[in-house]
Design goal:
Order of helices and strands: HHHHHHHHHHHHHHEHEHEHEHEE
Largest sheet: 6 strands, parallel
Distance between the termini: 40 Å
Strand content: 5-15%
Structural class: alpha/beta
């Protein structure tokens, strides 16, 4: 688990043995574990250059590209891995995740099915299939997929929490009540689950906080963050950036529209960043016009989005989405602005060290 030591020793070995692709592969894995995705990508690209027929190198590169939000490139890498080893169930599973992120749900389901045809006891593929069905709104199919994951892996808490959540969504209260005693295990086990899936199932703030902290540690390790210099004098106007996947006909937009419109423009420049799949309706048109600057960054990779946001020189970044649908919490782990705030979209703590404040009721 000492990844810093791994990086140090593997880096030294690559200097002694620059053509040892296995060492480069280890180095890439260590960089990825530390959240240094650029160096991880460089290492895995070196692996594929040294040994173009090494399927794990292409698969690992695809995983880093997926982490970076470079979905087209990730799919290309997984396809290359599969062309070299057509029975690679893991590559099909990873491909499904990338296709799901692109909104290509039917193709994602097909990819998971290919993974399961090769490896019928692949619980993770069933769980990811459930997530894809959930994204399509096919909740009963999602529940069945989560059940299959749990049949194979009874302690699979991520699948269990999603099964609970979707059963509540379709008002199957008998099923929820039957397994309710297992809900307490969804925090004490230490396994990361999506915090939103359990948020409405119990009134237990301490357990909600622990779930968020566990989820943040696993999914959003603090990256090599941008360092912001303290300004020598107060700027004429502060730049506030609001980030949301819901700039459309959605409660968050109705709640935020007047807030955005009423900002004192003598003190603030107000930027809007759309991070979700756009829906071009009347509310999107209305709220986008309320900002001084409005940018759609949903299709940009994390690195591309970071460049855009840092060029805008945002002083305060406000996440209006939290752990809800189409969130981009990982962006904030790179540090978008000197001050980062959680507000409105997710009614609880994100449990993340890179979020400085929450705007919430006192009690």
């Amino acid at each position: 688990g000492n990844l810093e030591a791994v990086v140090k020793q593997a880096s030294s070995l690559t200097e002694q043995y620059p053509y040892a692709f296995v060492v480069w592969n280890i180095l890439g894995a260590a960089h990825r574990g530390l959240g240094d995705l650029n160096k991880a990508s460089q290492s895995f690209k070196k692996v594929t250059e040294l040994n173009p027929n090494y399927t794990n190198g292409h698969n690992n590169l695809g995983l880093v590209l997926l982490d970076q939000g470079k979905l087209d490139e990730a799919v290309e890498a997984f396809n290359k891995a599969l062309s070299l080893k057509p029975d690679n169930a893991g590559a099909y599973n990873n491909m499904g995740i990338a296709l799901q992120e692109q909104g290509k749900f039917d193709e994602a389901i097909a990819s998971y099915n290919k993974a399961l045809a090769i490896k019928p006891d692949y619980a993770e593929a069933y769980n990811n299939m459930g997530n894809t069905f959930k994204g399509q709104g096919e909740l009963e199919e999602a529940i069945e997929a989560y059940k299959k994951a749990l049949d194979l892996k009874p302690k699979y808490e991520a699948a269990r929490s999603q099964k609970f959540h979707q059963q509540a969504q379709i008002c199957d209260w008998k099923a929820v009540e039957k397994d309710f005693s297992l809900l307490l295990e969804l925090v004490v086990s230490g396994e990361a689950i999506e915090p939103f899936s359990a948020l409405a199932l119990e009134d237990a703030p301490e357990r909600h906080r622990l779930r968020s902290e566990t989820y943040a540690r696993k999914n959003f390790p603090v990256k090599l963050q941008k360092q912001f210099e303290k300004p020598s004098q107060m700027p004429e106007r502060l730049r506030i950036g609001y980030f949301s996947a819901d700039f459309k006909e959605h409660p968050a937009s109705y709640l935020m529209f007047k807030v955005i419109e009423c900002h004192d423009r003598s003190l603030f420049d107000v930027y809007g960043y759309s991070i979700g799949q756009p829906k071009f309706d009347k509310m999107r048109e209305k709220i986008s016009e309320a900002f001084d600057v409005f940018r759609d960054i949903h299709s940009l990779s994390d690195i591309e989005a970071l460049k855009t946001i840092h060029n805008d020189k945002i002083d305060i970044a406000i996440d209006l989405t939290g752990y809800t649908n189409q969130c981009r919490t990982g962006l904030f782990s790179y540090r978008l602005a000197p001050i980062q705030i959680n507000y409105l979209g997710y009614p609880g703590t994100l449990g993340a060290d890179f979020i400085d404040y929450i705007v919430a009721d006192q009690n």
